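Researcher: Quick test of sequence recovery. Tokens follow.
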């Protein structure tokens, strides 16, 4: 059968090999096929094995390649950008460190020169609590609030509730900021040029020792009342100031209390200083020879000395007009050629600390002066009271209109469509009649 099929397909010659007999006759065609052998998987070697490089093996089993050799895969030109930026970073860090250290040194020198006067006048100076047996270092009396601002505090003195002192220094750690502020202040008068100054504010007791002095229990409260019963720490309310003429306009424009005064030069003061007062009699009493000498000695470092009972900002409510008596001193911090010598402003600073005693003793004026200063405050209070009443009347009017609108909407909501139409027509006619009456009156 197999020979017949082969002859049909290709006319092949019949096989001469003897056909197997029995059950293997059907597999006669595969009898002479060779046994299959697997193909070789060995890669062809194009060069001797000895010529191929071998990579060393690390202890972790990872081949050590060129990637781990930074000095082989990089060159100096890869770090040109970093080499350009790094000097600027070093300069900025150095300026920041130098600026902070310089500001700390200036603040330390200032408190070292003024600490004896503070400790002589006050029982408590600084934030460390009551005085101890061990002496306190002058630099420990100051607290660094920011890199350019240092503050201190004092209390425990007759006629003075407490004293706040703030030193504002240059931002030496940021020269670009100093340059920007100086440039802006050159073009805009409303912006104050950067300067180093000391600002001190003393808050007077004004007869309120029982309210301002904290006591732990009722027993000490009674002792405090007995101790202050015979004390007299009150003085008349007024606004008075001695100001350097360079800052006179800024002080007047920036403070509400100073706007209540009139400016007048005084013959005993230097030409660069002027007086702002509510009355000439107040100036005659407060401008003592000691104060004049202290202001003259301070020179260009002096900015302002203000005694006031009114707020710095214009009051918007009647409650803000409550008198709060205080004294403020503003001085420029000038560099001293010799740190060992006391600064020229020390005498004025000491006089300022003792000024509350002078006020309690002498600031009791004639009834005419008191009536004049009282009239100024009453006028301002009257304006605020009227503005408050007008505001309340407007609120009442708006509330009445809102209630009328709610009643109208509820009424219209309960009507039918025809009733709503008639109601709206009557409202429109009523409005037209009112408008016509207004036009008639105007004509």
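Model:
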């Amino acid at each position: 059968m197999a020979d017949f099929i082969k002859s049909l397909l290709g006319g092949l010659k019949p096989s001469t090999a003897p056909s197997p007999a029995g059950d293997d006759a059907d597999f006669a065609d595969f009898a002479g096929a060779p046994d299959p052998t697997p193909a070789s998987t060995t890669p062809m070697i194009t060069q001797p094995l000895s010529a191929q490089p071998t990579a060393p093996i690390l202890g972790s089993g990872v081949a050590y390649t060129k990637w781990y050799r930074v000095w082989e895969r990089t060159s100096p030109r890869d770090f040109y950008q970093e080499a350009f930026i790094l000097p600027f970073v070093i300069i900025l860090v150095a300026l920041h460190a130098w600026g902070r250290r310089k500001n700390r040194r200036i603040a330390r020198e200032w408190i070292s020169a003024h600490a004896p006067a503070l400790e002589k006048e006050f029982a408590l100076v600084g934030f460390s609590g009551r005085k101890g047996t061990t002496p306190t270092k002058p630099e420990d009396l100051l607290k660094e609030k920011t890199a350019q601002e240092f503050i201190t505090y004092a209390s425990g003195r007759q006629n003075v509730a407490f004293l706040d002192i703030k030193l504002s220094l240059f931002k030496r750690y940021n020269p670009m900021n100093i340059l920007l502020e100086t440039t802006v202040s050159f073009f805009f008068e409303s912006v104050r040029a950067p300067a180093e100054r000391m600002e001190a504010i003393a808050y007077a007791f004004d007869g309120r020792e029982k309210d301002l002095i904290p006591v732990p229990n009722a027993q000490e409260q009674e002792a405090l009342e007995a101790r202050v019963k015979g004390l007299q720490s009150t003085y008349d309310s007024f606004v008075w100031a001695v100001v350097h003429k360079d800052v006179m306009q800024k002080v007047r424009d920036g403070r509400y209390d100073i706007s209540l005064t009139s400016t007048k030069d005084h013959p005993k003061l230097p030409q660069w200083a002027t007086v702002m007062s509510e009355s000439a009699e107040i100036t005659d009493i407060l401008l003592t020879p000691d104060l004049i000498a202290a202001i003259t000695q301070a020179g260009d470092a002096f900015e302002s000395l203000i005694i006031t009972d009114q707020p710095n900002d214009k009051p918007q409510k009647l409650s803000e007009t409550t008198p709060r008596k205080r004294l403020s001193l503003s001085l420029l911090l000038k560099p001293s050629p010799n740190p060992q010598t006391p600064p020229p402003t020390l005498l004025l600073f000491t006089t300022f600390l003792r000024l509350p005693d002078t006020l309690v003793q002498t600031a009791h004026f004639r009834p005419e002066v008191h009536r004049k200063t009282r009239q100024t405050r009453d006028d301002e209070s009257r304006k605020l009271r009227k503005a408050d009443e007008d505001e309340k009347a407007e609120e009442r009017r708006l509330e009445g209109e809102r209630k009328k609108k709610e009643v109208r909407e509820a009424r219209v909501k309960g009507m039918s469509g025809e009733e709503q139409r008639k109601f709206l027509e009557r409202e429109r006619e009523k409005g037209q009649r009112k408008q016509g009456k207004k036009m008639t009156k105007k004509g």
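The two ends are 135 Å apart (CA to CA).
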